[in-house]
TrEMBL record:
EC number(s) reported in the record: 2.3.1.180
Organism: Malaciobacter pacificus
Record-level Gene Ontology MF annotations: 3-oxoacyl-[acyl-carrier-protein] synthase activity; beta-ketoacyl-acyl-carrier-protein synthase III activity
Gene: fabH
Domain notes: The last Arg residue of the ACP-binding site is essential for the weak association between ACP/AcpP and FabH.
A Pfam cross-reference name: ACP_syn_III_C
Any single GO BP term: fatty acid biosynthetic process
Localization terms from the record: Cytoplasm
The protein's annotated pathway: Lipid metabolism; fatty acid biosynthesis
Alphabetically ordered keywords of this record: Acyltransferase, Cytoplasm, Fatty acid biosynthesis, Fatty acid metabolism, Lipid biosynthesis, Lipid metabolism, Multifunctional enzyme, Transferase
Name of the protein in question: Beta-ketoacyl-[acyl-carrier-protein] synthase III
Length: 332
């Protein structure tokens, strides 16, 4: 039997910082309000000409180097993003593969909003276990600043830019195997987080631009309540299925949307502060990049070590949600 092993993590954190004080200058808000309601102090902003593929390629370079594999051995590239370089084509994954200098390779994007990286983990696992692929590069890369309406005081201060990446490879060693990934969705809640214009239903026009329909619209408070409920039950199902308790988890990495959500979910699950990775204060919500950026942060702090049990827990537009349970299994 062939299994899928989570070999490495990498990220690209754009150097430019936008603080809450910067938002005080453009919307009716305060550092105190944003900190209290979200835990966010600052977020990273990419350069104007910096695309998700640029950020994704930089994160991928690090993940490839840390996995100790040759680029030529990568046989699948998946990029999770809802802010692709181009609306339709080419996919951001194709652009990243080219920027990395990979030989011709299967490459495509996944659109699952903030759950995208967990969806990508699931797909990588399935391709490897089926024997079709051996080394899968998964990336979460987002440039939310390109879809923000900076007059929408209920939404614009939450999001930031960045990218994370990982290598998932085939192994015959069951001890290294990703234990489980469970992903789901419910399109009945499609109105909670949406970019209503710019797609084929409401193609780009002056009217769409004037109404800022190509920007993200979020019903924050309704989303908040569903996020807490879903993120909690998602993990409870996963833990019960594998007969695990919270003591078995070394690193709980929830989607970084709002510290109050992270705290409520952590408390409901009995996860302590040591176990729970939090980067929302530094990076804000970076959607599909949020979980790998958070994992990379904990890794670079020396907290995540070989053999540690990691649990991802994500929730986002669609609605989509998912969790992944695995032992971090670098080659060295
Ligand atoms: O990543 C995908 C999933 N996304 C999420 O999980 C996001 C979930 N939602 C949230 O994080 C929160 O709902 C927000 C941070 C977006 C908003 O916090 P909230 O506690 O749900 O606030 P609210 O929308 O219920 O608004 C409360 C008050 C309102 O004033 P009144 O009506 O009580 O007088 C708003 O007008 O806060 C006001 N408000 C603000 N005040 C200062 C809304 N935005 C701001 C702001 N600064 N930026």
């Amino acid at each position: 039997m062939t299994y899928a092993a989570f070999r490495s993590i990498g990220a690209y954190i754009p150097p430019k910082i936008m603080t809450n004080a910067d938002f005080e200058k453009i919307i009716d808000t305060s550092d105190e309000w944003i900190t209290k309601r979200t835990g966010i102090k600052e977020r990273r902003i990419s350069e104007k000409n910096e695309a998700p593929s640029d950020m994704g390629a930089k994160a991928a370079e690090l993940a490839i180097q840390r996995a100790g594999i040759n680029k030529e051995d990568i046989d699948l590239v998946i990029c999770a993003t809802v802010t692709p370089d181009f609306l339709c084509m080419p996919s951001t994954a194709c652009v990243i593969a080219s920027k990395l200098g990979l030989p011709p390779v299967m490459a495509y994007d996944i659109s699952a909003a903030c759950t995208g990286f967990v969806y990508a983990t699931s797909v990588a696992k399935a391709f490897i276990e089926s024997g079709m692929k051996k080394n899968v590069l998964i990336i979460g890369a987002e440039k939310y600043t390109s879809i923000l309406d900076y007059t929408d005081r209920g939404t614009c201060f939450i999001f930031g830019d960045g990218a994370g990446a990982a290598i998932i490879s085939a192994t015959e060693n069951k001890d290294e195997a990703i234990v489980d990934v469970n992903c789901s969705s419910d399109g009945n809640y499609d109105d909670l987080i949406k970019t209503p214009g710019g797609g084929s239903l409401n193609p780009c026009s002056q009217e769409v631009l004037d109404a800022k329909m190509a920007c993200i619209k979020m019903k924050g408070n309704e989303t908040f309540k569903l996020a807490v409920k879903t993120l909690t039950s998602d993990v409870q199902v996963m833990m019960k299925k594998h007969n695990l308790s919270n003591d078995d988890i070394d690193h709980f990495i929830p989607h970084q949307a709002n510290y109050r959500i992270i705290k409520a979910v952590g408390d409901a699950l009995g996860m302590n502060e040591e176990q729970t990775v939090v980067t929302v204060d530094k990076y804000g919500n970076t959607s599909a990049a949020s979980i790998p950026m958070a994992m990379n942060y904990a890794y670079e702090q020396g907290k995540i070590k070989k053999g540690d049990m990691v649990l991802f827990d994500a929730f986002g537009g669609g609605l989509t949600w998912g969790s992944a349970l695995f032992k971090f299994s670098p080659n060295n």
